[in-house]
Design brief:
Belongs to the ABC transporter superfamily. By secondary structure, the protein is of the alpha/beta class. Helices cover 37% and strands 24% of the residues. It contains ten helices and ten strands. 41% of the residues are buried. Bound molecules: adenosine-5'-triphosphate and magnesium ion. The site of adenosine-5'-triphosphate (ATP) has 12 residues, from strand 2 and helix 1.
Length: 263
């Protein structure tokens, strides 16, 4: 994927980030920068620390050591672990999105699809019922959910529809940074392909930055500009997606790439 990245400061700067669960390594000594408009894929086998890293970055987990700073809308770089609770909540509601692997974790299953999307708008101060409903319906259309399903609860949706609804709920407020944990995991192949197309279009249209955790190299190829390969909690390779996939340097990445012939 290509796009224009022309800002002079990173959106996110991560240095020496480690998270231990007791004696067990979650992730260790991870450093990178994420630039505005950039999509970073984090790949690696099960247990390599991808979710741990993502949760630390999204302040859903507090790391054992290391620093993460985020460029706020006023351009100030702030240590995300030193934000007040109110500031952190505000970021989560406005600037950031988090797409969970399991849509049920990111949706309210017993309120309507329209309300799931509208709720995020209300959280950023939108008060007009008609315009909230209009925007919500518009977003359902963008993720290919028919307008006549707006009053249905997500528990009446299929897995793929739930995932699309979760994406609409996250993107409706035009976040600057979206965290995604296996956004196409658990879906069948044809649904995955459509969802990936959709995500790719939305990311490009909105110019947002994203960190996408996946164990699927084809997802990384399609969505990301850069990728990091993790193994045993550490980043063992990091580079432009096409370079890493076409000319992997680390033996482990070579193994990973050669075992997936279709990428
Ligand atoms: N809450 C926890 N308590 C203890 N250990 C944990 C916890 N969560 C994760 N771990 C350990 O941290 C390591 C990294 O796990 P993590 O969930 O980050 O991996 P992952 O790359 O997301 O794997 P998967 O692809 O299976 O989702 C694993 O060894 C795991 O057992
Ligand atoms: Mg995981």
């Amino acid at each position: 994927m290509t796009s224009e990245i022309n800002d002079d400061e990173p959106l996110l700067r991560v240095s020496g980030l480690s998270k231990f669960y007791g004696a067990r390594v979650g992730c260790e000594d991870v450093s990178f920068e994420l630039w505005p408009g950039e999509v970073l894929a984090v790949v690696g086998e099960s247990g390599s620390g991808k979710t741990t890293l993502l949760n630390c970055l999204a302040t859903r987990l507090i790391p054992s050591s290391g620093n993460v700073s985020y460029r706020m809308r006023d351009a100030e770089m702030r240590d995300i672990y030193r934000l007040s609770e109110a500031e952190r909540r505000f970021l989560m509601r406005t600037d950031w999105g988090f797409v969970h692997q399991n849509p049920a974790d990111g949706l309210r299953m017993t309120v309507s699809a329209g309300a799931n999307v509208g709720e995020r708008l209300m959280a950023v101060g939108e008060r007009n019922y008609g315009s909230i409903r209009g925007t919500a319906t518009d977003w359902l259309g963008r993720v290919e959910i028919a307008a006549d399903r707006v009053d249905d609860e997500p528990r009446a949706f299929s897995g793929g529809m739930r995932q699309r609804l979760q994406i609409a709920r996250n993107l409706v407020t035009h976040p600057r940074l979206v965290f995604m944990d296996e956004p196409t995991g658990g879906l069948d192949v044809s649904v995955q392909a459509r969802l990936l197309d959709l995500l790719r279009g939305l990311v490009a249209d909105l110019g947002l930055s994203a960190i996408v955790v996946t164990h699927d190299l084809a997802v990384a190829r399609l969505l990301s500009h850069r990728m990091m390969v993790m193994k045993d909690g550490r980043v063992i390779e990091h580079g432009l997606t096409d370079r890493v996939l076409d000319d992997p340097h680390a033996p482990y990445t070579q193994l990973l790439v050669s075992s997936i012939l279709q990428v």
